[in-house]
Amino acid sequence: MTIKLGVPSKGRLMEKTFEWFAARGITLSRSASEREYAGAVDGIANVELVLLSAGEIPRELAAGRIHLGVTGTDLVREKLGQWDQQVQELAELGFGHADLIIAVPSAWVDVDTLDDLDAAAAAFRARHGFRLRIATKYHRLVRDFLRAAGVADYALVDSQGATEGTVKFETAEAVADITSTGETLRANHLKLLQDGLILKSQATLFRSRAAVLSDADRDTLSQLCQMIEVD
Amino acid sequence: MPDTAITRSAIRDEAIRLRALFEATGAQVVDPPILQPADILLDLYGEDIRARAYVTSDAMRGEQMLRPDFTVPVVQMHMAHGAEPARYTYAGEVFRRQEDYPERASEYFQTGFEVFDRTDPAAADAEVFALIRAALGDLPLRAATGDIGILAAAVDGLNTTPARKAALRRHIWRPRRFRALLDRYSGRAPVPETRAALLASADPLADCAPLIGLRERTEIESRVAALRDDAAAPPISENEVALLDSVLAVRETLPFALEHLRDISVDLPAIGPAVARLAARVDALAQRGVDVDALEFESSYGRTSMEYYDGFVFGFYAEGRSDLPPVASGGRYDALTRVLGQGVEIPAVGGVIRPGLLLDLRAAS
Fold this sequence. Notes:
The complex is a heterodimer. Chain A contains eight helices and twelve strands. Chain A is an alpha/beta fold. By secondary structure, chain B is an alpha+beta fold. Chain B is 46% helix and 18% strand. In chain B, strand 3 and strand 4 (62-66) form a beta hairpin. In chain B, helix 5 crosses helix 13 and helix 12 packs antiparallel against helix 13 (272-287). The longest helix of chain B is centred in the N-terminal third of the chain and has 17 residues, at 8-24. Chain B is globular. Classes of the chains: A alpha/beta, B alpha+beta. Chain A binds chain B through residues 81-82, 105-110, 112-113, 115-116, 118-120, 122-124, 127-128, 130-132, 139-140, 143-144, 146-156, 167-168, 170, 172-173, 188-189, 191, 194, and chain B through 42-43, 46-48, 50-51, 99-100, 102, 167, 170-171, 174, 176-178, 180-181, 184, 192, 194-195, 198, 204-205, 208-215, 217, 219-220, 222-224, 227.
C-alpha cells in the first residue's frame, strides 16, 4: 500500500509545493513528458504523487481517494460542508496567499462597511426591483459570511473568471473574489469593504479523515509527518 | 433515533392519515408540484434559500427548486383561483439541504394545514394551533409560542425617524443586525470613522473614482443625504431601548406574559393593539380547549426562522430532545401574501407536521 499525495498539477502552486517538500528532504518530480500527469517521489518510500487540479483536491480528500493533498484553504472551505470533519490541516505552506474579500465601486463613497452594503442593497432593491448582485465563484463562503453578518437583499451571481469586470459590464453591482495585491481591484475602480474580509487563504497540506490506512501506511504517514515537522 | 427503523411507506401512510384529519374538518386537499420556479423563492427569501433548498436547472425553464416547503405554492394557487375563506391541507415530501446538520433528513414528509380567512384572525390562529395539537395525539410535547407582531409594533412605536424604524423592521428576523442597528441609533455604538469622514465632507462625490455599474450617482447622493438626516436625528433614548429590551425579554406562561406586556404598553402605547390581538388569541385558544395557563410565550420566538412570519408563531418540541427540529410548527404570514399578491393581501395562518418525526417519537415513547 502507498500513501497518495495530491498536488496541484501545474503552475506556481505545483512548483512552490515541490520546493516546500524538497526543503524537507522529499523530492517530488513530474515525469519527463510534460503532457503526462504522473510523478515520482524520492526521499521517502511508499508515497505516491498524484497530480490533480487544485480545485479537485478537496473532493478527492473528502472521498478518501487521496490521503494527503495540497490546496488552498479557500477551496476546501468552499467545496466541503463541515470541512473540518472531513479533512485535517497539517501544515500551512506559506505561499499561495490570497484573501477572499468583498469589493464595491470606489465611487460608492457612502459604502465602506457591511452595514453600508446592507443599507445600499435595500435601497437598490427598492429602486431597481431586484436584489443587489454580487459576482463570485465562492458561493458558500460568501453566503455564510453575509448571513452571519445579517446582510440582506443581495443575490449572488456566478462568475468563474474576470470577476472584477462584472461591475463595469453591469452584470453585478459588487464582487466577492480572491485578491492577492489589490491592484486588479484598483484598476477596475473597485475598493475593499473595511470589514469585508471573508477568509485569508494560503496553500495548505491537508490530511483526509476518510482515507483508509493500513498499519504500514500509518508508519509511512508518521515518517512523513516527522520529516515535515508536523505532530 | 434512526430513520431507518420506520419505513418510508409507514411515514407516507401517517402523512396521509394526518391529511385526512384536516380534510375531515373541511379543508380542501391540494397537491402542488415538487419542482418550483426558483426565481419566486429566491426573490422572497434571498440567497439564504439556496443554502437550504436544492436548486437544479434546465436549458428551457431555467432554475428550478425542489420545493423546500408548501407554503409558497399553496399561497400562489389560492391567489390565482381560490375562493375565500378557504382551508387547505396537503401531504408530501419537502427537500432541504442540511450542510450544517448532516444528521438531519434532507428529504422528509410534511402534512400541512393552511387557513385563508380574514373574518377573525384570533379564531383562525387558535384553529390552526388546536387542530395541529390534536393531530399530534397524546405525545408529551412542549409547545412554544410567540408573536412577531408585538415586536414589529414596538419598533413602529419608537420615537425616531421613519427610516430608522424601517431599517429595524427589516432586520427583525436577523437579531444580530437588529441589535447592531439599535446600538447605532441609540448612540451606544460609535459612528465608524469612514461615516464620520463622509459626513464631514461638503461634497463627498467631488473627486471620487469614475462611477461604474448600475447603481447611479443619484442613488449615492440620496443615501448620503439619508445619512446626513440620520446624523442630525437625536438618538433613540435609553428609556426606549430599555422598553424594547423588556418586550424582547418577555418569556413566561401566556397569562403572565400578557400581564407583563400590558404593563409595558403603559409606557409603550404603540404595542397596545398587538397586545389586544394577543389577548383575543388567548381567549380563542381557551375556547378551543387549549390549556393557556400552561402555554409558554416568548417574544423572541420565531425571529431566526424564515422571514414573513409576522404574527402568531408556534412550534411543538419533543421534551428533552433539543437536538431535534420541531415536530410541528407554523404561524401567521400575512406579509407573504402581501408580497406574492402584489398588493392584494389575504390574512393567512398555517402549520406543518413532520410525520416521520412523529412516528419516531411514538416508537421511542
